[in-house]
Amino acid sequence: xxxxxxxxLSASMAEKDVQSVKKSLAELAxxxxxxxxxxxxxxxxLTKINTSNKVFVEDVIKSxxxxxxxxxxxxxxxxxxxxxxxxxxxxxxxxxxxxxxEKVRCTRKLAGSEAYGSALMxxxxxxxxxxxxxPGAATGFExxxxxxxxxxxxxxxxxxxxxxxxxx
Length: 168
What we know:
Order of helices and strands: HHHHH
Number of strands: 0
Strand content: under 5%
Structural class: mainly alpha
Shape: elongated
Mean pLDDT: 87
Number of helices: 5
């Protein structure tokens, strides 16, 4: 017997709310015009900062005053300090964004799963109704069967319907 998919999520967003979120995201990006993208090769080639070497960078910045005479003019302590400050600021922002993004991804995945799981259950009910000879069920089933075959990439002719009631 098929288990009814658990409805853990019952929510929707008004179009004005979707537009508001998109506008907020655009404003967020606009507030940080310096953001850049890196390709995979560039990401791999970058030196990586972590907790211990961050402390090292902080110590180097502190040592600039003592070692001014030996540091070439093309090395700017101000730029290193700015980069580190930006790193710290973006670290805080990234933490908050990552939390929101993870929740968006999980909620989207659950919403899709619930929609598809329920659709599969309805498909099986229509399929069963068709086999039982319920008037009108066959027409709907043929449309859904064709769409189901295309959406799952399964062969339509010569193969059994891939979804069984106990698979749901």
